[in-house]
Amino acid sequence: MYETLAVVGATGAVGRIVLEQLQQRNLPFKKLKLLASERSVGKEVRFNGEAIKVELLAPGAFKNVDLAIGSTPDEIAAEFVPYAVKEGAVVVDESGYWRMDPKVPLIIPEVNPDAANKHEGILASPNCSTTQMVVALAPLHQVARVTRVVVSTYQATSGAGLPGSEELNDSVRSALVGQTHPPKTFQHPIGFNLIPQIGSSKYEGYTSEEMKMVYETQKILGDDGIQVCPTCVRVPVTNGHSESILVETEKHISVEEAKELFEAFEGITVVDDLPNNQYPMPRDCEGKDDVFVGRIRKDISSPNGIAFWCVSDNLRKGAATNAVQIAELLMKRS
Ligand SMILES: NC(=O)c1ccc[n+]([C@@H]2O[C@H](COP(=O)([O-])OP(=O)(O)OC[C@H]3O[C@@H](n4cnc5c(N)ncnc54)[C@H](OP(=O)(O)O)[C@@H]3O)[C@@H](O)[C@H]2O)c1
Fold it and tell me: Which residues are recorded as binding phosphate (predicted)?
């Protein structure tokens, strides 16, 4: 039984949506605890009409907590998750720190729910750009086995949390009056710009964000043979990541079949009518929980290739919604 729930990082970009999702989806817990840093201690957050005070994330905070959803930076997750588990909580963590640990299942509930059955107190939610891509790949993989993916991302500034969104606004305002706002969260000014670097240099010229897309995709789909070539780009959009995806499959599938597979898969909405200018765009997908797919077409450069465009709200399915769905799954199975 999961009676007491803690939201760790409740004051952040993702934590706020976790709270929204918990209210909307009506999860059957009895008590809620909100945890964050010293900066937020004592702040009041309204939840289902009740004011709850934010408490300090520190050892001892999980003594009566059954389930915790963590949305903190990696280094904070590295520290708090072990003592939360020791104090008796099961942790669903959204940071990147635990995802590739072989003992930690990495879950997208529509794709690999059964992996959640075997955990040692920690379950991880994938990186935002990985989640939406893997949701879109899953129906194709189930029928035709995905062998290779070439993906370019167009990632929103809220992917870097509240400071990322603020920096976009400051950068645009400064640019409009001919000034440059000194970048802090990003490597360069983001207003009226694109930055082809998310994360740090990691492997053979790929960034840490790009390598997350490689390793996490293979782990979730349970297939180390899937080849992924990603390019991750930060764009001046506040919310909603977009991805141009080229996928090659072992078995040929037609565009019509791919469209039917997308349409039948839980969590995917197809918006695909080019003659009438209909395709997914971040401004239309913001605030929604689905992964949106459009521009579905044959890859004219490859015999077994399908090309498509994929958009999802990174704070929702890319983060909070997926974590709350994992919590829901655990509660249903307890
Ligand atoms: N943004 C996305 O699209 C997205 C998608 C998938 C995964 N994630 C992951 O989710 C996590 C949170 O991201 P975010 O975008 O919500 O970041 P954020 O807006 O910067 O929020 C960070 C949260 O962590 C808390 N925190 C920071 N330092 C802390 C400390 N020393 N002790 C306790 N709490 C601390 C903050 O509390 P204070 O307010 O008190 O500082 C805040 O609640 C990150 O690991 C990120 O990689 C984000």
Answer: 99
Q: Which of 176, 136, 184, 182 shows the shortest CA–CA distance to 160?
A: 184
* Residue closest by Cα to atom 3 of ligand 1: 159
Please report the pLDDT score of residue 198 as a whole number: 98
Tell me: is residue 39 an annotated ligand-binding position.
yes
For residue 193, how far is its CA from the centre of ligand 1 (angstroms)?
25
User: What tens digit of pLDDT does each residue of 48-90 get?
Assistant: 999 999 999 999 999 999 999 999 999 999 999 999 999 999 9
Coil, strand or helix: which one is 31?
strand
The full DSSP string for 46-112 is: EETTEEEEEEE--TTTTTT-SEEEE-S-HHHHHHHHHHHHHTT-EEEE-SSSSTT-TTS-B--TTT-
Q: What angle do CA 322, 160, 112 make, to 5 degrees?
A: 20
Q: How far apart are CA 119 and CA 141, in angstroms?
A: 25
Which is the closest atom of ligand 1 to the Cα of 72?
24
Low-confidence ranges of the chain (pLDDT < 70): none
- The closest of 1, 24, 14 to 96, measured between CA atoms, is 14
Check the annotation: does 278 bind a ligand: no
User: What's the CATH superfamily of 130-314?
Assistant: Dihydrodipicolinate Reductase; domain 2 (3.30.360.10)
Q: Write out the catalytic residue numbers.
A: 128, 241
